[in-house]
Amino acid sequence: MSQRPFKTLGIQQIAIGGPSKEKLKTLWVDML
Predict the structure, then answer these.
(1) Measured distance CA(32)–CA(27) in Å, rounded
(2) 28 burial via Cβ count (<10 Å: 0-12, 13-18, 19+)
(3) Alpha carbon distance 9, 2 (integer Å)
(4) What is the distance, to the nearest Å, from the Cα of residue 28 to the centroid of all Cα atoms in its chain?
(5) 18-31 pLDDT per residue, tens
């Protein structure tokens, strides 16, 4: 896995506040 998705996920996680961590992870896994 490349580091780019992780970086974007981290930024979005901070922007949202953390609660949607699993939701974002599922979204990224589905996209990738």
Answers:
(1) 9
(2) middle
(3) 12
(4) 6
(5) 556 677 777 777 76
